[in-house]
Design goal:
Distance between the termini: 41 Å
CATH architecture: Roll
CATH class: Alpha Beta
Protein name: peptidylprolyl isomerase
Number of helices: 2
Strand content: 25-35%
EC number: 5.2.1.8
Shape: globular
Organism: Triticum aestivum (Wheat)
Helix content: 10-25%
GO molecular function, one term: peptidyl-prolyl cis-trans isomerase activity
Largest sheet: 7 strands, antiparallel
Number of strands: 7
Keywords: Isomerase, Rotamase
Length: 151
């Protein structure tokens, strides 16, 4: 399904910037610190990760409570790598992704991001494991908190 107010990439990822950040975009090899929420858009819009923090709010405290990954390292699903392209610190991007750029082989234990609660893990597993029966389209809200330069 295509959403008219979203930009669609060659891979099928659709995105919309809810807020544009400031500064440079992350480059390959740099570590990004992000906050994210995830929904099973194709299956009743179930939340599988929601930290109950407003995306785009003020950032206070350490990085420990946020998700980090090195851009270009293959640590995360392809859609997250692609979503970082053009994002800037402080920006919030909503992405809609088809299953083929989501969790590979329906196994979210290989690549991040992973739900932090048992119930979230169970909800996502349920959708990914029901071959052909459930639409596996996912929606994520991603906030780029900051970029840690490579050393």
């Amino acid at each position: 399904m295509s959403y008219p107010d979203y930009t669609e990439t060659e891979s099928g990822l659709q995105y919309k910037d809810l807020r544009v950040g400031d500064g440079p975009s992350p480059k390959k090899g740099e570590t990004v610190v992000i906050d994210w929420d995830g929904y099973t858009i194709g299956y009743y819009g179930r939340i599988f990760e929601a930290r109950n923090k407003t995306k785009g709010g003020s950032f206070e405290g350490g990085d420990k409570e946020f998700f980090k990954f090195k851009v270009g390292s293959g640590q995360v699903i392809p859609a997250f790598e692609e979503a970082m392209t053009g994002m800037r610190p402080g920006g919030v991007r909503r992405i809609i992704l088809p299953p083929d750029i989501g969790y590979p082989d329906n196994d979210l234990n290989k690549l991040g991001p992973k739900p932090t609660t048992f119930s979230g893990q169970r909800a996502l597993d349920f959708v990914l494991r029901n071959q052909g029966l459930i639409d596996k389209t996912l929606l994520f809200d991603i906030e780029l908190i900051r970029i840690i330069p490579s050393q």
